[in-house]
């Protein structure tokens, strides 16, 4: 077995994974998740890179207590973050597929 050929193959695989990961990160910036709380009274749109793009509050909710509004906003954002995390994990798994990485290792990229 030629160690130099093995090293070249490993470097080639690493470059391929890095290119796939960069493409996946760019894709995540363009993908959106949508979450809501309070039966749609508060809606959040977030990218796969955790950037909040839109926050919508139903005008009828503004007549309620501020604590309720804050809780619903927090719930909607937390749901959007959960969805964005799932999207990230699925996208990175696809980008590193075939590399034999254990589950959860995509977070290193």
UniProtKB/TrEMBL annotation:
Belongs to the YbaB/EbfC family. InterPro entries: YbaB-like_sf, YbaB/EbfC. Pfam families: YbaB_DNA_bd. GO terms for cellular component: bacterial nucleoid; cytosol. One of its GO terms (molecular function) is DNA binding. It is found in: Cytoplasm, Nucleoid. Binds to DNA and alters its conformation. May be involved in regulation of gene expression, nucleoid organization and DNA protection. Its main location: cytoplasm. This is Nucleoid-associated protein ES754_05000. The lineage of its organism: Bacteria, Pseudomonadati, Pseudomonadota, Gammaproteobacteria, Moraxellales. It comes from the Bacteria. Keywords: Cytoplasm, DNA-binding. Homodimer.
């Amino acid at each position: 077995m030629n160690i130099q050929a093995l090293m070249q193959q490993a470097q080639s695989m690493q470059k391929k994974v890095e290119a796939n990961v960069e493409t996946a990160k760019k894709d995540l910036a363009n993908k959106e998740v949508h979450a809501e709380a309070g039966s749609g009274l508060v809606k959040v749109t977030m990218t796969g890179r955790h950037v909040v793009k839109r926050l919508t509050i139903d005008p009828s909710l503004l007549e309620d207590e501020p604590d309720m509004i804050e809780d619903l906003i927090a719930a909607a954002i937390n749901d959007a973050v959960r969805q964005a995390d799932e999207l990230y994990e699925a996208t990175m798994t696809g980008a590193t597929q075939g590399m034999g990485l254990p589950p959860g290792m995509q977070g290193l990229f």
